[in-house]
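Run log // design_07
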């Protein structure tokens, strides 16, 4: 069960960080994104979420359970 929880936490952190990075890249390069322009706090929030989830990925990869 521990490996199952670890896997899903790791998968969710990967998906979250990738989606935040894609959101930032698309919002920066796409002239009129479908969701509208992000306010400045939106950039800060997206970067914070991306950084935290990368930290979670690193922490989870260092504490990987033995299979």
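design_07 sequence
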């Amino acid at each position: 069960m521990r490996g199952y929880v670890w896997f899903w936490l790791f998968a969710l952190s990967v998906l979250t960080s990738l989606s935040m990075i894609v959101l930032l890249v698309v919002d920066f390069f796409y002239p009129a994104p479908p969701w509208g322009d992000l306010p400045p706090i939106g950039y800060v929030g997206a970067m914070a979420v991306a950084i935290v989830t990368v930290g979670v990925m690193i922490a989870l990869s260092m504490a990987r359970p033995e299979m």
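Residues 12 and 34 are 24 Å apart (CA to CA).
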